[in-house]
Structures are given as structure tokens and as C-alpha cells.
Amino acid sequence: MILFCDTSALLKLYIVETDSDVVKAKVAEAEAVAVCRVSWAEAHAALSRRAREVPEDAPVIEQAKQALAADWPCYVVMEVNQVLVERAGDYADTFALRGYDSVQLAAAYEAGRIAQTPIWAMIIVSAITSCDGSQEGFRRRRWRPFPCWPSRHRDAVQ
Q: pLDDT tens-digit profile of 41-58?
């Protein structure tokens, strides 16, 4: 199974949040984990905001950033290009999504198209959890948690 994680799902691997265990379990089951290139910037922005808001977490946040950097080469990174952003624009209109949420959804679709296989997409905001790879092949479901990736993530920020 190929798993696509948007930034919200990806961060659950590095900081302990509701459903982090679910994301970690799903990553553990996956043959490959795909992410969108913009997740790097979004993740760093979110982690840096946490360090500013809760200064005592700053050392652990730095560890989370280092762990993300170490893991990044293991992810299948979906590049943002004109075709992807045009699809994202369509998704923004169709599903009333914010800009980067629609980019994440389009990247998940592209991952399934390239792989020519169904993928699991953990896109937290949009509550879309699977893609069957067909034309506009997304099924809307209520998002449920799953488990995820390397054991070192169990020491993530609480």
C-alpha cells in the first residue's frame, strides 16, 4: 500500500497529537510514503510556531525538525508543477478547500496516477482518506486514525 500524508498527518510522526499512533501504524504498513514538496515548508512553519508559543518545547521541536530532515529522503516527494496546481484549483472549487489543502489533495491524486494503484491519503483537513487512482477517484469519508513509521518517533513532543 502507498500512503500519502499531508502536512498535518506528517507532523503526527514527529510530535505527539491526537491520532499520532494511528498515523504511525499506517506508515508501518505502507510500502511507500508520499508527501508533497510544500509539506517541508508547512511542517517547518508549524514546528517553529510551536517553539515560539511553547518555548520550553524548543529543544524537542529542534529534534523533530532534525528527524524530519533525516526521514525526508525516504519519502516519495511529489513535485508541484503547473498540471498539479491546475488540478488543485479545480479541487479548491469543487471541494471548497483552502489553497494548500487543494495542492495536497492534487498531489495525492498525482501519486496514485503515477503509481497506477490505489493509495491511502491521510489528508486531515479535507477528511478524504482514499484515492482509487481513477478520474477524480476520491471517496469522501470521515477521517479515522491509523498507526505509522520508525520507532524513534514515539519520543516525539507531547
A: 999 999 999 999 999 999
Supply the CATH number for residue 22's domain: 3.40.50.1010
Cα–Cα distance measured from residue 65 to residue 41, given in angstroms and rounded to the nearest whole number: 11
How large is the C-alpha radius of gyration of the chain?
A: 15
Give tens-digit pLDDT for 77-124: 999 999 999 999 999 999 888 889 999 999 999 999 998 888 888 876
- Which of 27, 107, 115 has its CA nearest to residue 74? 27
DSSP annotation of 15 reads B
Which is more confidently placed, 135 or 25?
A: 25
Query: Looking at the domain assignment, is residue 156 inside a domain?
Result: no
In a domain, residue 158? The reply is no
3-class DSSP assignment, residue 11: helix
- Whether the Cβ atoms of residue 66 and residue 45 lie closer than 8 Å to each other: no
Q: In what order do the strands lie in the sheet with 119-123?
A: 76-78, 32-36, 2-5, 119-123, 128-131, 138-140
Can you give the pTM of this predicted structure?
A: 0.78
